[in-house]
Design a protein that fits this description.
The chain has 320 residues and is an alpha+beta fold. Helix content is 43%, strand content 15%. It has two domains: 3-107, Phosphorylase Kinase, domain 1 (2-Layer Sandwich), CATH 3.30.200.70; 119-319, Transferase(Phosphotransferase) domain 1 (Transferase(Phosphotransferase), domain 1, Orthogonal Bundle).
Length: 320
């Protein structure tokens, strides 16, 4: 492997601390790597102050404009008193550059990943997401993409097939199944009609929430993009079909307190789930030159993995 293609190979402890110091903070040398695959995220100790979180963006993933749009959205949400932590600003800037890396800093936010069980909690989350979407609908992203069939289904599946990612003996089965899935996804979108697209969290599952005694705090807007409102709701659901329906009812009861919901978007839930499955496999394939990925996902690209993905897509076709 050409080490020049490894995105974070030059990100050493000295590089990280120098980057933090470059904005005017004085690090105390304490450095803790936090769980993140797409980017690199660290907690850094600061002399005579609370630690900060520094996020180094994966090279070539987002443009500067796209990152700054995310930062601006976070500020809008925080200004609307939503439980969001915006990027720290130094000299009116939130995006910085050091040793060829782009990075941003955030206040440390403590909390635990929630176990969402009772319907009152689902309703509470619904209210917060409704408020989030009310802000998200005020303007559109210009530099960030839209969650679409093209960029979450057609393009990723084409990438997998054209780059010989799938074992040869399963290529025909995968291609047939994914093509059938894309047909059904298109049908779901037609049933949903013209949905309003707004700025979303984009990856609003419990792992991107931190829970305190006073409630949830949303983190990691790195996947924020334009899309239908239901995208930020269905990822929270869990359990069997009946349990998910009751959870969704509670979410929507809270959500509609602050923002209208188009019930036809319910046709999109299984379509969006299917798009996420297709996109996820292509995401792993694209990141395989990053040493963190083979270490974390050793089961990827095995015959068993792709057999299960084909079965999964077949199940989704039935559900759609």
């Amino acid at each position: 492997m050409n080490t020049q293609t490894i995105p974070f190979s030059g990100l050493t402890p000295d590089t990280i601390l120098t980057a933090v110091d470059s904005v005017g903070l004085l690090s105390d040398g304490r450095l803790l790597a936090l769980n993140s695959y797409e980017n690199r995220v660290y907690q850094v100790g600061i002399e005579n102050a609370a630690p900060v979180i520094v996020k180094f963006y994966r090279p070539e993933r987002w443009s500067d404009a796209a990152i700054l749009e995310e930062h601006a959205f976070l500020t809008e949400l925080a200004d609307s008193e939503l439980p969001i932590t915006p990027a720290l600003s130094f000299d009116d800037h939130t995006l910085f550059y050091s040793a060829g890396f782009r990075f941003a800093l955030f206040p440390k936010q403590s909390g635990r990943v929630p176990e969402i069980q009772d319907y009152e909690t689902f309703e509470w989350l619904g209210r917060l997401i409704g408020r989030l979407h009310a802000v998200g609908a005020l303007r559109d992203y210009q530099a960030r993409p839209t969650l679409s069939i093209e960029n979450f289904g057609i393009e990723p599946s084409t990438y997998l097939l054209e780059h010989n990612i799938i074992p040869p003996e399963l290529v025909d089965a995968y291609q047939t199944t994914v093509n059938l899935a894309l047909v059904q996804i298109q049908r779901c979108y037609q049933q949903a009609g013209d949905s309003q697209y707004l700025r979303l969290h984009g990856d609003c599952y419990p792992g991107n929430m931190l829970w305190h005694d006073d409630g949830p705090h949303f983190v990691d807007f790195d996947d924020s993009r334009m899309g239908p409102a239901i995208q930020d709701l269905w990822l929270i659901l869990n359990g069997n079909r009946q349990e998910r329906q009751l959870q969704l009812d509670a979410l929507l009861q809270g959500y509609t307190t602050f923002y209208d919901f188009n019930p036809r978007e319910l046709y999109l839930i299984e379509a969006l789930r299917t798009l996420r499955l297709i996109h996820y496999s292509a995401w792993l394939a694209r990141r395989w030159n990053d040493p963190a990925f083979p270490n974390a996902f050793p089961w990827f690209n095995t015959l068993d993995y792709w057999q299960k993905r084909i079965e999964e897509l077949a199940e989704q076709i039935e559900l759609m």
